[in-house]
Amino acid sequence: MSQGNSLCFVALMRAGDISCDIDTLISSLPFGESERERLRSIKNPAAQKNSLSALLCLDRLIKRTDLGNEDLTVIREKNGKPRFASLPYHFSITHSRDLCAVALCKENVGLDLEFIDASRNVESLSKRFLSPEEHSRLLVSENSLEDFFALWVKKEALAKLSGEGLASICRGQIIDDSAYFFKEYRLTVDGADACLALCFEKDAPSIAINNTYEEIKIYEIQN
């Protein structure tokens, strides 16, 4: 990726692909000691693997670009949003179940991925977390389950873009497609469906998705 290209690279990785020693992998990451210590401090093994897989995925993305010799130190803002300390690129990380996705580009970006979970009571979740207008639309939807998760990932992606946190854009804010630019996708993974959304402040750059998994199918949603 040359610095003049308006491209957003997205890559996927499964936590189950991690087969090497965890401590060795953490030590090999180029994102700074603070980020390595954060990973080592995660006590839940599954959560640690998920977080590690996301940074390994980011590392692989960077190695496909011309950024490998740059300072890749990652710092966390007060709200927890990660960013490069000095590199003029942005990234966003998300994971659901054992699958993570990472976006890397020059534009500020927010990314979210969620598996569509039929066991969730979307009517109750909608009433609790969505605006009254969004909740009303969902109640009359012919596919309220998918529509809820499709809207949810857009809200999460916007929250990650702004760094303000999900609470700030749940019930108090309707997703405004004219104020932000979204790219939406559906994934099928081992027979399960998932929603993925990217959010940008300006015109969305071209999206290049690196999917090395034959069992994962990705479809862009045209709105």
What report would you give on this structure?
- The chain has 6 helices and 10 strands, in the order βαααβββββαααββββ.
- The protein is an alpha+beta fold and 223 residues long.
- It has helices at residues 22-28, 33-40, 45-63, 122-129, 132-139, 144-162, and strands spanning 7-14, 74-76, 82-84, 90-96, 99-105, 109-115, 181-189, 192-200, 206-210, 216-221.
- The relative contact order is 0.16.
- It has one domain: Ribosomal Protein L22, Chain A, CATH 3.90.470.
- The longest helix has 19 residues, at 45-63.
- The chain is globular.
- The two termini are 28 Å apart.
- The strands form 3 sheets. The protein has a 4-stranded mixed β-sheet, with helices on one face.
Topology:
Blueprint: E1 7-14, H1 22-28, H2 33-40, H3 45-63, E2 74-76, E3 82-84, E4 90-96, E5 99-105, E6 109-115, H4 122-129, H5 132-139, H6 144-162, E7 181-189, E8 192-200, E9 206-210, E10 216-221
Parallel strand pairs: 1-9
Antiparallel strand pairs: 1-5, 2-3, 4-5, 6-8, 7-8, 7-10
